[in-house]
Sequence to fold (889 residues):
Amino acid sequence: MKKIISILMVSLMLVSVLLLTSCSSDSGRTLNLFTWAGMFPDEVIDGFEAATGIEVNYVNFDYDETMLAKLQAAEGGDYDLVIADDYIIEVAIAEGLVQKLDKSKLPSADNVNPLYQGQFYDPTDEYTVPYGAGVQTIVYNPEKIALDIKGYADLWDASLGDKLGIISNYRVINGMALKTMGESYNITDTAKIAEAGEKLKTLAPNIRLIKDDNLQDDLLAGEIDAAIMYTSQVTVAKMTNPALEVVFPEEGIGFGIMAMFVPSKAPDSDAAHAFIEYILTPEISAKCYEYIGYYCTNAAADSLISEDYRAFLTLPEAFTAENMEMIGNITAEADEAHLAAFTAFREACE
Amino acid sequence: MIKKAKGATLAVLPLYLFTLVFVIGPLILMLVLSFSPRDGWGYGSGFTLDNYAVVFSGTYLNTFVTSLKLAVISTAAVIFIGYPFGLCTALLPARFARFFVSTQMIPYWVNSLLRLYGWIIIFRAGGLLDAVLMGLGITEEPLKLLYTYPAVVVGMIYVLLPFMFTSVYQVAEKLDLSLVEAARDLGAGRAYAFLTVTLPLTLPGLKTGVILTFIPSMGLFFIAQILGGNKVVLVGSLIEELLMKAHNQPGAAALSVILMLLTGAVCLLMMRKPRWQK
Amino acid sequence: MMNKITFTRIAYPILITVLTYLPIVVVVIYSFNESRLSSSWGGFSLKWYRELFRDEDMFEALFNSVVLALSSSMLAAILATAAALGIKNANLPGKRLIERASLLPLIIPEIVLGMVFLAFYSLLGMKFGMMTLILSHTAFCVPYIYTQVSARLEVLDSAPIEAARDLGASGFMAFVTVTLPLLAPAILSGIFLSFAMSFDDVIISVFCTGVSVNTLPIRVYTQLKTGVTPEINAMCTLMLAVTVVCYAAAAWLRTRKPAKH
Fold:
């Protein structure tokens, strides 16, 4: 009996390997799209395939850093289109892994909201087209919290004991302390960063949890009553419970951009351009942003986003490039200081 | 005799070569990396001890203590729960034993992240556990167990238990019960028979179980992240931060080397044959 | 044999099994949740199953995961069993050192292992894909099988093997008819453990995979940016159902046909 099982398993293995090798000899054009899972609704991918006859091969990575490592190993080849966070794109461009876009193939690139253009990672907008922005906000449940939260400084209030949930991103969280000190997110003075770390430690009694995934569930379930979370999580939370309060901190607004780029040796850069152009179509864009729940970076799509979502997928008019700041790359020493401060903070939370 | 050695050599050779290339090779790369200087987002050539110096600076030393503590607690708990589980199952008639062995295998079709999410729902304030405990009148208000140290330990036990169970079971299944019966016939008490017959006979399984529990538990950190609210800072999670957020590959490699040495040392210490066995 | 059922022997495993299945039951229940969030119950719905069946990529990822886990655990089983059997008499320099070294993938944190594998394969100029995945997974599967088999060998009586040899059986025949059946439980439990680890691995896979191969855990974990949807719950529930049916069928076949030995 056991012998039969093992023979069966070995033959199954051989068959599957054969199947795999035969699968790869597909004809037709493919677009190798490299990004996180769940970045596009199925209907958009299907629509693109139907419109162009190009098949989308959706490959996923977990972290930006993994993406960079894979792209380095492939020397800018293998993948046709990548969507990743701003700071990593700056590094990829510096390493020559990104090719300049052919704007003649992207007539809709003019639709991009100027607020998200000319940023540090691509000052001349030659390499990238933004796809969604994350904006740092504070979310809280006014039914459970009497305090009228206006900015980061309010989070230190003693009435919030063990009620706060935050994401595990030290540049955002340490940055919060820096903001209360009136500093920039991007300072490189390690003494100041250490000072922010000390300040952060005094927040520990209010922290119930630090995590990146599904933080909105904890807020909605009442495990925490206030949170600093990613934009997509804010959108989901607000859609589920409209009574939640979303605050743009008075100390200043931090934001990040996800952008599309074509690797330097992309096998089919034409297909990549066709995809970017397709995504920039206002109707398609609107669908995408409603689906991923990040701020819309396509100005032409703003008015097409349904009423339910518009309030938190487009920025209020008052926000301009002057009162917002992106989190950029800093020196290795400053990064080291941030990590040390954040580690000490996490230990203080237990 | 010579023929026997030749056959044995041929049998070992594939793993020997595989290990040489696909384990030792990458390992050497890791060692080299841990002594390389940082260069922007990657690493440069040259030799430096800086990466190790950073590790031994106050902040990070603590994470090793925390990791060791959690690994020891989890391993002890897994022995306590898993050893009797494997033994009891092995002592059942084959039909029943098979049932328990297969029921241990089925959960693996469910992604581990989802299984941990399942625990979150159970532990949540006002969740399943609270409903049961409060319904039975054992507790009066929600326990707020989620995102605490005990929740992390439960998660660790949950993930590691099958390793202890299978290790003990597949050795105990071979156990010749007549020896225990003989000991009992000769007037040995239950506890005495267990200590002198059953335990020594199942020791290889227990040892394997401890190795397969303790070693991974030193590196497991996603349970502490998901069920512990990321407040228990473990070496593994620090390595992840160094690699994925601080883009410091040499630092991460150095931490891994130290973690490896520490884990190896503790294992050797545990695996030393007790004096009475020699 | 003398194995009997007593209250403790049966009650304790039942208790542990029930506890093991608690979170699984929760996962199954929430696959029928209308709401996308685990914090609220939006009513019974088959919505996520409909989503799942529209998602070809998900099934392709499942297929890749099964192929990967099967291949690497089988390959590891062959390597580890042969080595465990021969290690005593083998004539190779530093064999004990290599034996210890083969266990090292257990100690090195996955994330570093993944990073080093990536660097190593690109150093060798290998193409990333199923091959690199299988090699890396085999490397971390070996320890699970090796430890199980050598523990079993330690308690195994070598008398039957010697007896078979004395009766004139060749080394190979003795191996197939005597040793292999005696080792089978250990090999199987090793395969089970390593299959489980491989099937669930995300960190090493994400580093070692290429353009064409996505696995199921990669699909799940890389969704974190936008939130994990109950579609995955539906997928896992389906897989559970298929497994349970298979087990039940196997058990039924076994009881129908009287055992030969």
Q: What stands out?
A: Residues 112 and 204 of chain C are 9 Å apart (CA to CA). The two ends of chain C are 13 Å apart (CA to CA). The mean pLDDT of chain C is 84. Chain C touches chain A through 47 residues (CB under 8 Å).
